[in-house]
């Protein structure tokens, strides 16, 4: 890889080597201007090794000691996930904020040209070429339904009254349309909860005053409503409350933020002590009513996920228990888990996903304290579509423990983009849906024995698996599960 990068950098800086050759020839001929060609050629050639190293590092994003963060301005909590998503399009000034449930979703088009390894757009984070077009059927909640839900779960009735036309929109309605979904916000579709703005009736069709207005999904706020982004509130007395996956309360917070022209967040934290008195009072009123009438948290994924599952049509590395070299295994190479703490968009894309500025918390295998690292990575679209379920990632660690590489095949299997399954020696099929800890244990077991299994199905009937058949069955009988619902996959 480094040789290819060196050749590519040499081609980019070809005037440099040509200048050196020309200068050497002129020097041998005794020409007085030879030193000019030599100096110019040297100046153009010096960047070549640095460009080659940088390009190789970009192509093969290895996390090393130089990527560790010693200080950060964001107060990352144990479960914090900060997502900086592109802004949504502008809606009508009198648009109504509402919740919309995704009833059905299907991928219409995602077809980048694929002519370049990396493609950069200077003026946009969401070029059409790299932004999936998705057909969605939404059930938009009516104002009466939304207000009623918020009142039941602690909203402040006197806060943020709707305009007159909103009062008449008491009933919800369904709408089907196609929208460009930013890659960082795909998980909101899979989760099934969106925040949308509904234009006043008749604005989209002047001939029919009663026609529902245009629907504008608020994609960054949708990831908040879906639970992909975490959200915490620090009240005026310094107490912190986690409001992630409380849609009624989050909708009320969004309304306050819209009325105030935006509320700054430090990571996933809104500190009321830094807001003006009127805005802080509105947040406090919502919190008081929430304590009086608690709201039940929403599920990680709304029912009917199978009708919204677009993951199989999105690009990414195929989920698998993973491949391993015996040399790496014998020299002490291990797998470790990490967790994304932050993702931010860049203007660069690859066919299988956007290039993101990421922050991860890595847990070393030797038991030493976890550390935070920042690295620019290409994150596949299929993983981004299940980001509301998990932010865990599997890292392939070098034998000397100094570098880490994301193993996307194992990461996708752990995230549930495909259904993991074990076939027992007697031929029984045991699905591992909803058992990430068991999947993780099996990955480590196979890696420690130097066994590759480049599919999501582990077949213990194969002769090469005989050495691990007993330990695998012991792991499966342990019954480890997690709190997440079983992922759906049409490949299962």
General description of the model:
With 492 residues, the chain is of the alpha+beta class. The chain is 31% helix and 21% strand. It is globular and about 85 Å long. The relative contact order is 0.12.
Briefly say what this structure is:
This protein is of the alpha+beta class and 492 residues long. It is built from 15 helices and 18 strands.
How do the strands and helices of this protein lay out in sequence?
Blueprint: H1 2-12, H2 15-28, H3 34-45, H4 47-59, E1 82-83, E2 96-109, E3 119-120, E4 133-140, H5 143-152, H6 164-168, E5 173-180, H7 186-191, E6 193-198, E7 215-217, H8 219-226, E8 232-234, E9 240-242, H9 247-260, E10 269-271, H10 277-292, H11 326-330, E11 334-350, E12 353-362, E13 371-378, H12 381-384, E14 392-397, E15 404-406, H13 408-415, E16 421-423, E17 429-431, H14 436-448, E18 457-459, H15 466-477
Parallel strand pairs: 1-11, 8-10, 16-18
Antiparallel strand pairs: 2-4, 2-6, 3-11, 4-5, 6-7, 8-9, 11-12, 11-14, 12-13, 14-15, 16-17
Radius of gyration: 27 Å
3D shape: globular
**Considering DSSP H and I runs of 4 or more, what fraction of the residues is helical?**
25-40%
The main pleated sheet reads as:
7 strands, mixed
* Mean pLDDT over the residues: 83
